[in-house]
Specification:
The protein is an alpha+beta fold. It contains 16 helices and 21 strands.
Length: about 500
């Protein structure tokens, strides 16, 4: 009998110990994760009932902030400039969660209990916030949207020496304010309106949407020449309108069957497709593929925004039985795909002596007392090419502005390096590329001491005619950005 009582007692002690451990696990070890778990209504109410830090431009303009509210949530998230910064800040929504910087730096932006500074504060909860200061320049952001106007497209401007994002615009865009409303119906109506819009205003075209880069990819092809087969830079290609493609009876021709040829400086200045297609075939798939990956293709750029997409270049094996596609890939068509961010990084890499810095929007995080909590330290993402190659490609790109397809973006007293691009998106046959085109331009300036690198894409859309270089639509936007950044009249 005594033995049974002992066993029952031991069993109860074991059960008590297990309950004690479970309670401690819930209340201590897992307390934070449970409190912040999705769907935890009390956590949501708490988050929306405490202040939230500001998101600021580099020059102090408020992109997102919080103000006291008379609703049950006590604070209201506001976006004073509406859609101007929407694709960067994202939204802070009771129903739909967070996106953009609101998501990326939530751990700093969310309110937290301040450390007590007096005996009285030991017994009261005083909330404080940190704020995120970005690298964006408000004047450049405004210039980007003004220059885009009603055009669908994207603009990315970088400081090539640090990787700091100076401007990022995606059009059409949206106003995040209704998504931050304390009224659930307002949030739901706004969300339905945005996601049902065929123009996809919630899509950040600057980082999440890739297009064929067209002749802006010739920056990479030109770099590959100097890195892998420098003698190609001295080949004088005969002027032709078309070339025969290997492994097929089809031909590749220049826009509108224009005749072009010559050595590399001329080929790049006039953006000669037949010349660069031949260069791509002579370089070979391995060299061109390796060069593309050194510039960041087939990898997601390490930008501090959710939703960034990788730009793509086909594998070497893809071309083994498909050499015509190698000719098209050398001119940025075929299966090549690039985001505006990626092409801005390509331009920035050439501008920065061959080194691509990691792109970033965070400048620093500051406390409510303006003390620096943390700051971004510039770091290298890719060593794309050598300083020697970068210098040679820069001079060739300067020629594109001096006497080539980007002559329209010239600014007085400023040496600019640039490359135009179009990617025809309607194919009637393998040998005949016609129809509307995606329009591109990549540029940096001043060429010998760059302060800004910019990429613009204006994809095909109703009302735009096909044009041979991309300069017609992307050019004025690039020119406006360079002029604003360098303080000169365009």
């Amino acid at each position: 009998m005594r033995r049974r009582i002992t066993l029952v007692g031991a069993l109860f002690l074991l059960i008590f110990a297990l309950l004690f451990l479970q309670l401690n696990d819930l209340q201590i070890a897992k307390a934070n994760s449970l409190a912040n778990a999705p769907g935890n209504y009390s956590a949501i109410i708490k988050a929306f009932s405490t202040p939230r830090g500001q998101i600021l431009t580099a020059n102090g303009q408020v992109m997102a902030g919080s103000v006291p509210s008379t609703s049950q949530y006590k604070y209201q998230r506001v976006y004073p400039h509406g859609s101007l910064y929407a694709d960067v800040t994202g939204y802070y929504s009771l129903i739909y969660g967070t996106s953009g910087l609101e998501y990326e730096y939530n751990k700093y932006l969310q309110g937290h209990i301040a450390a007590p500074s007096s005996l009285g504060q030991l017994f009261s909860k005083s909330y404080t916030t940190d704020s995120v200061v970005t690298t964006l320049q408000s004047s450049l952001q405004q210039t980007a949207y003004k220059a885009l106007g009603s055009l669908k497209g994207a603009v990315v401007a970088l400081n090539p020496k640090t990787g700091a994002v100076l401007a990022m615009a995606s059009n059409p865009t949206y106003n995040p304010a209704p998504l931050a409303s304390a009224n659930g119906t307002t949030e739901q109506n706004a969300w339905k309106s945005y996601i049902s819009n065929s123009q996809q205003p919630l899509l950040n075209r600057a980082i999440s949407r890739a297009y064929p880069p067209g002749s802006t990819f010739k920056i990479v092809t030109t770099s590959a020449i100097f890195d892998h087969d420098p003698k190609l830079a001295r080949v004088n290609f005969p002027p032709v309108a078309t070339i025969a493609l290997p492994q097929t009876s089809h031909h590749l021709h220049n826009y509108a069957y224009e005749v072009c040829g010559g050595e590399l400086p001329v080929l790049l200045a006039v953006s000669c497709d037949t010349g660069f297609a031949q260069i791509g075939l002579r370089l070979g798939a391995s060299n061109l593929h390796n060069e593309a990956e050194k510039f960041g293709f087939n990898q997601v750029p390490p930008i501090d925004l959710p939703g960034a997409a990788a730009s793509t270049f086909p594998s070497t094996s893809f071309f083994s039985q498909n050499l015509p596609q190698l000719a098209f890939s050398a001119i940025g068509q075929g299966n090549d795909q690039a985001t505006a961010l990626q092409m801005a990084l390509v331009g920035a890499g050439i501008a920065n002596n061959g080194t691509i810095m990691a792109p970033h929007l965070l400048g620093r995080v500051i406390s409510s007392q303006d003390a620096t909590v943390t700051s971004f330290q510039p770091k290298v993402w890719k060593v794309a090419t050598s300083p020697s190659t970068a210098a040679k490609v820069t001079q060739l790109m300067v020629g594109v502005v001096k006497s080539g397809t980007a002559a329209g973006i010239a600014l007085p007293g400023i040496q600019i390096a640039a490359k135009t691009g179009t990617a025809q998106t309607t194919l009637t046959s393998h040998s005949n590329i016609v129809g509307q085109s995606d329009n591109w331009m990549v540029a940096f300036a001043p060429a010998q001491n760059p302060k800004i690198a910019v990429a613009v894409v204006v994809p095909k859309q109703p009302g735009l005619s096909a044009n041979p270089t991309g300069a017609q639509y992307a050019g004025p936007i690039v020119k406006a950005m360079l002029a604003a950044a360098l303080g000169v009249k365009s």
